[in-house]
Amino acid sequence: MKRTADELLRNDDPAWPAVALAIQQAGSNARLLPGAGEQGRRCIEAMQVSSRSTLGALAFHAGGILLDSGWVRILGCGHQECALSLESATSLLGFARLNQPPVGVVVGVDILGGIFAINGGFLQSTPLGQVAYFSPETLEWTGLGVGHTAWVQVMLSEERRDKFYTNVRWSGWREEVAALPANAGLAFYPFLWSLESRPLERTSRTQTPIDQLIRFHLEARP
């Protein structure tokens, strides 16, 4: 039976205070986009997750979180500077199911068109509830070995974020990313999965709507 937003928000141990503190401690490279009250209510009800969880807290309280000027976008209930929400991104990948739990929940995207998603059954090789990453370098999903809360903690750490993306950053990336509009990612040519794309400084990089970039990568899978 579907729970209402009021039911999902009614608990004595909400996750938001801890999440908000973690965002604050992440420093200037993490920017919280505020959620709107009614928009947050619709999102948490659509996701059917309690505000006791990190996912529920972000669904209700956050429009999204921009890391490294938008290189990574942790999704929430949606914001004009984030382009996608938990609900719209999950629908974009075809994970939503009528009157059933989704087979996956998209919780983040990056400037490359990479996708972070909680496995709800769409991946056989990754345990249920763990986050997987679809890489534009390999055109494959890879389990990250952590759940959503731990993944948010990893992404909020600049050191661990830099380590995760060490192979796909180029000289001047920060300024280039900061200049992008909110709905855009970067399409590389030669493509990131090709040997010809290295060094990245020699590639052509074109602003592309992030939803189009994601669709292109998914359709390019062998």
Question: How would you sum up this structure, described in words?
Answer:
It contains nine helices and nine strands. It has a seven-stranded antiparallel beta sheet with strand order 1-2-3-4-5-6-7. The mean pLDDT is 95. The chain has one domain (5-219). A hairpin with a 4-residue loop joins β4 and β5 (115-119). It is globular and about 55 Å long. With 222 residues, the protein is an alpha+beta fold. α3 (37-47) packs antiparallel against α4. It has helices spanning 5-9, 16-25, 37-47, 54-61, 86-92, 148-156, 158-164, 173-178, 210-219, and strands at 30-34, 62-67, 72-75, 104-110, 115-119, 131-135, 140-143, 184-189, 204-209.
Can you summarize this structure?
The chain is of the alpha+beta class and 222 residues long. It is built from nine helices and nine strands. 40% of the residues are buried.
